[in-house]
């Protein structure tokens, strides 16, 4: 059997698709895969922030069209770039094992000390809010483009530092560029950060089942449920991160109301075995969202 696997054209997106293809062929040795790349609307419009042009769902637009037209059979996405609502026709068939979910600080090449007087390049409101909470005097400037483009701008002196996702740098073999890791208690990650999602028709689920990481699925469903309940999209300042330790799943969530300035991080826990029920995974996210909304109301 041969499958066409779709990806964005960036070096990171291609590497992520290659990782999924390698896993698919490991569990399905007779499977042939062809990588099909395409430039998306989100890749083409770089002079505006994502929230001004429709959100990160623009990174999926062409890939979903290719699925509908039969040009590809599967699409590989960074889960954090996907809208919170899945399409019924092309659901997420598999969630990869999570790579390092943390955000990191990257300095210009050859620079060892962070010059906080220079602007920091940062692409999301989620990061900006949390960075300002840590460093109130910091100047933060929006930056667009793929990881390599951003690093090039940094090294040319346009910024004093960048804040990026550790997962992307590690997958590109650029871990050596990381100057500092921000723990999840300092900067809460975007829902799904570090997870790859495989999208396609339900008829292909038997092929993707072997690469579907169950704990990653449970946690991702909970994180996305939290964001969805707060009506947050992938460009929203809402953040969520779940982890399973000692048989307990703990979900942390960040709620920010742009209108009132209310900013709160809270958490909710559930035994690991209960997370296997998708309804429970959804519920823990919804319950935490309601808890934080109620705290603002009671304030």
UniProtKB/TrEMBL annotation:
Q: Give start and end of each Porphobilinogen deaminase C-terminal domain.
A: 221-294
Q: Does the keyword Transferase apply?
A: yes
Task: Name positions with the PTM S-(dipyrrolylmethanemethyl)cysteine.
Answer: 234
Q: How is the cofactor bound?
A: Binds 1 dipyrromethane group covalently.
What does UniProt give as the signal peptide span? none
Q: Which Pfam families match?
A: Porphobil_deam, Porphobil_deamC
- Using the UniProt record, name the top-level EC class of this enzyme in a single word: transferase
Keywords attached to this entry: Porphyrin biosynthesis, Transferase
The cofactors it requires, by name, are: dipyrromethane
The residue ranges of the Porphobilinogen deaminase N-terminal domain are: 3-205
Instruction: Please list the reactions this protein catalyses.
Output: 4 porphobilinogen + H2O = hydroxymethylbilane + 4 NH4(+)
For this protein, the record's CDD domains field holds: PBP2_PBGD_2
* Leftover remarks: The porphobilinogen subunits are added to the dipyrromethane group.
The task this protein performs is described as:
Tetrapolymerization of the monopyrrole PBG into the hydroxymethylbilane pre-uroporphyrinogen in several discrete steps.
The record ties this protein, via HAMAP family, to: Porphobil_deam (MF_00260)
Give the quaternary structure.
Monomer.
Q: Which family does it belong to?
A: Belongs to the HMBS family.
Q: Could you tell me what this protein is called? A: Porphobilinogen deaminase
**Phylogenetic placement of the source organism:** Bacteria, Bacillati, Bacillota, Clostridia, Lachnospirales
């Amino acid at each position: 059997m041969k499958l066409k696997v779709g990806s964005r054209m960036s070096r990171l997106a291609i590497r992520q698709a290659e990782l999924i293809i390698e896993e698919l062929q490991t569990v399905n040795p007779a499977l042939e895969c062809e990588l099909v790349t395409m430039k998306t609307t989100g890749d083409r419009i770089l002079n505006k922030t994502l929230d001004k042009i429709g959100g990160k769902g623009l990174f999926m637009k062409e890939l979903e069209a290719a699925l509908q037209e039969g040009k590809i059979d599967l699409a590989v996405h960074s889960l954090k770039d996907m809208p919170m609502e899945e399409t019924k026709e092309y659901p997420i068939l598999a969630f990869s094992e999570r790579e390092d979910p943390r955000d990191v600080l990257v300095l210009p090449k050859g620079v060892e000390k962070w010059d906080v007087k220079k602007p920091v390049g940062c692409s999301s409101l989620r990061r900006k809010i949390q960075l300002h909470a840590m460093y109130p005097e910091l100047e933060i400037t929006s930056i667009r483009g793929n990881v390599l483009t951003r690093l090039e701008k940094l090294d040319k002196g346009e910024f004093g530092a960048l804040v990026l996702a550790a997962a992307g740098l590690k997958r590109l073999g650029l871990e050596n560029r990381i100057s500092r890791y921000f723990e999840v208690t300092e900067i809460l990650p975007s829902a799904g950060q570090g997870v790859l999602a495989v999208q396609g028709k339900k008829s292909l689920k038997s092929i993707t089942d072997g690469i579907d990481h169950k704990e990653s699925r449970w946690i991702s469903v909970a994180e996305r449920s939290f964001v969805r309940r707060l009506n947050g999209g992938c460009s929203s300042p809402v953040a969520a991160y779940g982890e399973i330790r000692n048989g307990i799943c703990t979900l942390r969530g960040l709620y920010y109301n742009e209108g009132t300035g209310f900013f709160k991080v809270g958490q909710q826990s559930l035994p690991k075995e209960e997370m296997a029920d998708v309804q429970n995974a959804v519920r823990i996210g919804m319950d935490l969202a309601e808890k934080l909304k109620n705290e603002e109301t009671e304030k």
